[in-house]
Amino acid sequence: MSDRRRRAMVTGAASGIGAGAARRLLQGGAEVITVDIHEQGLESLADQGATPLVADLTDRHDRQRVIDAGGGVDWLVQAAGIIRLKHIEQITPEDWRDVFAVNAEAVFFCCQGIGPTMAPGGAIVNISSSSGKLANTTEAGVYAASKAAVLSITRSFAYALSSVPVRVNSICPGIIDTPMQDDVLRSVAALRGITAQQLSEQRTDAVPLGRGATPDELAELIWFLCSDGAGYMTGQAVNFDGGLVTW
Fold first, then answer.
1. 17: domain range?
2. Residue 140 Cα distances to 120, 180, 183, angstroms
3. In a domain, 194, yes or no
4. pLDDT tens per residue, range 184-221
5. CATH number at residue 34
6. Which residue among 151, 175, 176, 214 is least crowded, i.e. fewest CB within 10 A of its CB?
7. pTM, to two decimals
8. Annotated catalytic residue, options 100, 143, 223, 240
9. Is residue 142 part of a domain?
10. What does the alpha-carbon distance between residue 17 and residue 67 come to, in Å, rounded to a whole number?
11. How far is CA 169 from the centre of its chain?
12. Residue 143 a catalytic site member
């Protein structure tokens, strides 16, 4: 990397994967704009030097504020996401629209609005999910569909932004220790009539490496994909799941 200080934006930075990414970018010396709808969650990152931006990415006005603030950044990490957990036959059109508004629509339009303005040699990292490739947790069917959309959005913008050049890659995390993961365990276990501990054990048993990962571990992959070391990678969907998915 050059000696110039890089500028970055991270969405969904108040907790989980987004918070881990923001911490790693700050540790790497970047100026980081942290975006989330939850103001309180951004406070600790602000104490570490980040610039907080409270915004609802589903609101067009707020999203434009995010796009304006992100103009000219070197790195964009899109980790904002929500999940609705229901039996698949109970999913409503409102559930579909709400999840896609955050998980796919915001990703598309932030790529569209920020990508062309980014510094040449910059990178976008979109957080998808192993559920974008697998369908075994049917209670998360809408979430899975939205994360599959992220993979397609990533490929499209990898082509569209190649002339800048800005690289666009996605990551498909598996079991990561986040508040969303805790919600999945509680809610899906209740829907299946088992305990959260039983579900956790079942899921971990399906992972060849036999464990989940932390947001800080995943942040190292995000750092790599942003770095010049990944300068020949674009349009990729990188699995980070302990071997759960190998394609």
1. 7-176+214-240
2. 37, 12, 11
3. no
4. 999 999 999 999 999 999 999 999 999 999 999 999 99
5. 3.40.50.720
6. 214
7. 0.97
8. 143
9. yes
10. 21
11. 11
12. yes
